[in-house]
Amino acid sequence: MKRVFCPKCDHQISFDETKYPEEKVLVFVCPQCSAQFKIKLGRKIVKTESGKEKEVKEPNFTYGYITVIENTFTFKQELPLVLGDNIIGRRNKDTEGVDAAIITGDPSMGRKHCVIHVKENKQKELVYTLRDFPSLTGIFWRNTCLGKKEQVQMADGDIITIGATTFIFYESPLNKKERS
Predict the structure, then answer these.
(1) SS3 sequence, the chain?
(2) How far are the Cα atoms of 22, 26, 73, 88, 92 from residue 96, in angstroms, in the given order?
(3) Sign of CA dihedral 119, 121, 126, 131
(4) Are the C-beta atoms of residues 123 and 129 closer than 8 Å to each other?
(5) 8 A C-beta contact, residue 63 and residue 81
(6) d(CA 34, CA 8)
(7) Cα angle 86-43-99, degrees, rounded to a multiple of 5
(8) Which of 1, 8, 83, 122 has its CA 20 to 30 A from that of 22?
(9) Distance CA 45, CA 161 (A)
(10) Nearest to 139 by CA among 150, 128, 155
(11) Cβ contact 115:131 at 8 Å
């Protein structure tokens, strides 16, 4: 199943892309706001609201990623991390400054909920730390609630819960090779 978002109201629409050939243009009418928009399957270039074309880049998992576990509020998602601060939170039409925006209906997750910081140490290994943004509902890391100003070092496979949404942290594949 493929998911697209209405460019006007940000409503999510799902459809089975395997029923259509590559390069097929599909027209959608948003059930929420009645806006009409088109998408072209298999294309890496999209048009913005202003009519300009914009290239959609493939995600880069070089610095690690998080996998959101599917639940009542959300579907499975894989979101890449970058060097520096990675602000994680709920995707919203107005979401700005969030590096890993989770598409969810979870009302207990903040738009800016937590931060995963990625940096290189002197041995050229990547080090990952987790802290609260701060949020209203906090963060559970390895089944432990983190304090408001607490910061912890993460390891591959750590399970983090923000609101009612859980994700698994995976470090860079390059880090794993260097330790072998």
Answers:
(1) CEEEECCCCCCEEEECHHHCCCCCEEEEECCCCCCEEEEECCCCEEECCCCCEEECCCCCCCCCEEEECCCCCECCEEEECCCEEEEEEECCCCCCCCCEEECECCCCCCCCCEEEEEEECCCCCEEEEEEECCCCCCEEECCEECCCCCEEECCCCCEEEECCEEEEEECCHHHHHHHC
(2) 32, 29, 21, 11, 9
(3) negative
(4) no
(5) yes
(6) 9
(7) 5
(8) 8
(9) 34
(10) 150
(11) yes
Q: Tell me which amino acid residue 173 is.
A: P
Which tokens in the block code for residue 177?
A: 């090779």
Please state the pTM of the whole predicted model.
0.70
The pair of three-digit structure tokens given for residue 96, joined into one six-digit string: 């700005």
CA distance 124 to 5: 39
